[in-house]
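User: I'm writing a tutorial on reading structure tokens. Could you give me a worked example: one chain, its sequence, then its tokens, then a sentence or two explaining what the tokens reveal?
Assistant: Sure. Here is the example chain.
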Amino acid sequence: MAKRATTLFIRDTGINLLVVRGDKIEKWASMPLDPGLVSQGLIVDEAQVADKVKQLFNETGVKADKVITALSGHDSLYRIISLPELPDAVLPEAIRREAKRTIPTPLEEVYFSYQRLPSLTKGESRIFLVTFPRNLVDALVRTLRTAGVKPYIMDLAPLALCRISNEPRTIIVNARLDHLDVIVVADRLPQVIRRLVLPGEAESLEERLPLIAEEFNRTVAFYNSGHMEKPLDTTVPVYVCGDLAEKPETWQSVISRANYRVSPLPSPVELPEGLNSSEFMVNIGLALKELLEEKEGDNFSTVNFNALPAAYVPPRFSMFRVLVPVGAVIGIGLVVLGVILILNGRANMGALQSDVTATEHSVAQLQSEVAVLNTQLASVGAAADGIRTELAAMERGRTSIYEDLREIVNLAEGKVSLRNVSHGGAVITVTGTASNVDSLYGYARDLRESPRFSSIWVSRVGSGFSFEFSLTK
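And here are its predicted structure tokens:
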């Protein structure tokens, strides 16, 4: 029997419920939400939204005991980071430290999830890292529990959309009245995800088209500046979804004069008659987390992890948990019985061994004192060698850091204004502002061409051409 996936997505303006079995959609339903109940992904009135969710499940007859849900993606950050190759046991702590160093938001305010990616260089671990606000997750889980819904997998809406397209490279534009997502997927990875809250004073999508076009062009230019060897050319398809998918007459104005091929985001599952697929694209992407089977030649996104924090993941029944306590009791009983038998046997030998033990103790004490003296002599020599080595390394490090900083400052002259340079050894974080996009990308290009840095990752470009670069030595 084909697997079934039940998905639920709560947006600012409505709730979408979708059930997929195999490659066919079984049930779907949606319910609008009054303004203010959910704002920028945060459930403000948990009681009312929970009532709506419960009503939706009751009316459709869908079971609520195993549900895949999603966050909107507001205030979420996405990074591809590099670490030395590490064992799985220490990887979470290493990622937490790297996130604390590179993410501008305090870790106390966010949850983070990650996925290990195939390494491109020997000795390197590549990690896809996502951080998202704690308050959004906590409010969502509380609301679902109040409604009697048991989430067991969570995703972020932009990552769900990336999972739908079976193309090696693509641009996805998800435009609604209240927000915009522009996503660049390449090498089966979301390379750029930009989410923008659209101004509330506009009453129609047409009024927002200039802003959507501007953000589209900015995202393409941003990606191309970091991938000049393989930019986004006209062979890359542009897929639209959301409200924009229903207005094909506006697509050309979004891509401006570029000759991109624009079409609605295609669904990899069979769509029943009467379903408006543009409304349920996030739900379809959520269902594919469980239903998508990897096949040779596929180009679906490889990013697929459970973003639900561990504290909220429901425990799974395991016969192992039942058998282990029983086995432990039996094992303890056998150990106790064995100890009793051994003690009875040793009682007869105790008198004979007492003299031997006293002699062995004296010899051991003398050997211990000799070993301590030898250790102390060795440690003095080792300490001196260690201090000389550390001083030499510190001097080399100081010189290298000085040369790095001088290169960063010299290349910035006349192009950008630097705000902060954080040198972490192997990774350097540079923040600042530029007067225009040409200066910003020119500075990024100069850094990339510098022999002092092996790579540059453009971490963020904000309003007013503020930027954050991550340089790798």
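What the tokens reveal: The mean pLDDT is 86. Residues 213 and 447 are 29 Å apart (CA to CA).
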